[in-house]
TrEMBL record:
TM annotation in the entry: none
The family this protein is said to belong to: Belongs to the short-chain dehydrogenases/reductases (SDR) family. FabI subfamily.
Entry annotated with the keyword Lipid metabolism: yes
Protein name per UniProt: Enoyl-ACP reductase
Pathway: Lipid metabolism
Keyword vocabulary terms for this entry: Fatty acid biosynthesis, Fatty acid metabolism, Lipid biosynthesis, Lipid metabolism, Oxidoreductase
Source organism of this protein record: Tetradesmus obliquus
Gene3D superfamilies registered for this protein in UniProt: Enoyl acyl carrier protein reductase, NAD(P)-binding Rossmann-like Domain
Amino acid sequence: MVRAMPNGLRTVVARPAASGRRSVAAAAGLSIDLTGKKAFIAGVADDQGFGWAIAKALAEAGAEISLGVWVPALNIFETSFRRGKFDESRKLSNGGMLDFAHIYPMDAVFDTPEDVPEEVRTNKRYAGAGAFTVSEIAERVKADVGNIDIVVHSLANGPEVHSLANGPEVTKPLLETSRKGYLAAMSASSYSFVSMMQRFGPIMNPGGAAISLTYIASEDVIPGYGGGMSSAKAALESDTKVLAYEAGRKYQVRVNTISAGPLGSRAAKAIGFIDDMIRYSYANAPVQKELAAQEVGNVAAFLVSPLASAITGHCCYVDNGLNIMGLAMDSKTLAREESA
Ligand SMILES: NC(=O)c1ccc[n+]([C@@H]2O[C@H](COP(=O)([O-])OP(=O)(O)OC[C@H]3O[C@@H](n4cnc5c(N)ncnc54)[C@H](O)[C@@H]3O)[C@@H](O)[C@H]2O)c1
């Protein structure tokens, strides 16, 4: 049915389904089903971030999940998990609990054991962690669970990360960022995904999919997202396309990235201005609500599912539409005196 709109546009209005029963059957046929699929998710250390929300969505769809947890965060994550701190957010809609097949210590800035410098190897937070480089984790995953279908890269490096391995520069403007800090941001936040695709691509089943998380600061200027992080996200988005081509041809897998709106995760809080970004989004995005991590998790589940089998090399915005705005609706310069 075509209906004229007041602005001169025409819109197509869907006809109601012939019977309620038929529409229910159609909806069931489109559910996301990842039963039997195996996923590896890098970048979960609590139940607040996107990585956890993606794990939960994939589990809701039936996938088996293994995690790569940043080495210095592993102990507290496992202790909190055991003590039931995450139990409320582990609850699944079928009455079960989110669980993990395997939890691996991981540091995505190191590709092989030879890359780990002495001061990290002997650091008390790393000593005893065993294998934690990207290549070693891929080998362990292959040995423990066999081939996998889904790879998720949900890593970010806030100052807490830098303070251990790199320079604390994410809060510095680009004009004040050192070469070391810039390259550290690129290493942890973009090359780590290239490294994961190099090592996990060969153990992915054809038809599989990989996903990463990016941020609008890659293409528009977001003062405060510094230290080379904006550059790292730009590289990650460009690499998404090249990897989609290369890994698509070589391994028959898809590669996409989600550009997420602001979320008060641990990494984001470390940068320091996340509450401002959340308020800004609420005031200026087309959809006026706070972004829930689960909304990103759900889109990730769709993108790695067979429903998205023709989508690859894509940057998918999950940000309440903020990315389309060219004007800040709450700008003081737009204010008008209300006439009485
Ligand atoms: N929070 C936001 O507003 C926002 C917006 C857009 C995109 N993102 C992106 O989402 C992704 C997830 O971040 P989040 O905000 O959910 O925060 P988060 O703190 O939940 O996740 C970041 C994770 O990265 C891990 N990590 C850091 N360095 C690592 C390393 N070298 N090796 C292995 N793991 C490492 C941390 O331990 C942490 O678990 C990041 O890529 C981030 O840039 C976040």
